[in-house]
Amino acid sequence: MKVRLDKITTKGKALYLAYDQGMEHGPIEFNDENVDPESIISLAQKGKYTAMIFQKGIAEKYSSSIKKSKIPLIVKLNGKTSLYKGDPISRQLCTVKEAIQLGASAVGYTIYIGSEQESTMLQEFEKIEREAHAKGIPVVAWIYPRGKATEGKPEGELMVYAARIGLEIGADVVKLKYNRNEKDLAWAVKSAGKTKIVISGGSKVDERVFLKEVKETMEANAFGVAVGRNVWQHKNPLEMTKKIKEIIFS
Question: Residue 86, class by beta-carbon neighbours within 10 Å (0-12 exposed, 13-18 middle, 19+ buried)?
């Protein structure tokens, strides 16, 4: 079955509103307003995001509001907390079937390359990718170099390796952390071939710094940006959304 990547794109580009940080980081990332998933769903709707990213629990408990927003849903299928400090592993917590029942237009999965547990995550991803593609559902791979094996290796080299792994394992989109080197990113995009590259928004930074990163991302021919904290922690999330969209879709 043909994979419907067009369901999570706008004019061939992507702007995803990420809100899967609650499990990974805890509520320390939130304030009185953005701690409520309803505020994020409303932001995605008003900002006309290409898609929004939630873990299974929010996708299920706020399904009515998500469906009313008409913004495509990407369900994150695995996750872990920040409490365990060994080489990371993020195991599957939601099935492709469950995600589709929740209305997902795509599914996502994190792989920590360089971790002692990377083989487990790669094997889980393979099963997810096979099942999702059989249903025509795109798979987004969060590929992050982590663990002792990555220590001392150049960030740019690891980012490019992550991009290539995305292609090799059959991901439709790879979400990477940008090392803020335009040449490295351009090479990562080329290394990913027909797999699309989306850059992670990461921790909250100065607005000018983040918008510069978005500009560099698009100049490197990447697919787009998956942004969370740099929007919903902003004093004016919709204004920030508008500035990001002007760069991506211009």
Answer: exposed
198-236: b or e for each residue (b if 16 or more CB lie within 10 Å)?
Answer: bbbbeeeeeeeebbebbebbbebebbbbbbbbbbbebee
pTM of the complete model: 0.97
User: Cβ(143)–Cβ(170) under 8 Å?
Assistant: no
Known catalytic residues? Answer: 144, 175
**Contact in structure between 25 and 233 (CB atoms under 8 Å):** no
Nearest to 78 by CA among 60, 57, 92: 92
Q: What is the pLDDT of residues 62-92, one digit of tens each?
A: 999 999 999 999 999 999 999 988 999 999 9
Query: Residue 32: is its pLDDT beyond 90?
Result: yes
Residue 117: the pLDDT is 97
Q: Can you give 187-249 as a three-state secondary structure string? A: HHHHHCCCCEEEEECCCCCCHHHHHHHHHHHHHCCCCEEEECHHHHCCCCHHHHHHHHHHHHC
Closest CA to 134 of 1, 224, 246, 36: 1
Segment 195-205 mean pLDDT: 96
Q: 17: pLDDT confidence band, cut at 50, 70 and 90?
A: very high
Q: What is the average per-residue pLDDT within 165-193?
A: 98
CATH of 5-248, one of 3.20.20.100, 3.40.1190.20, 3.20.20.70, 3.90.950.20: 3.20.20.70
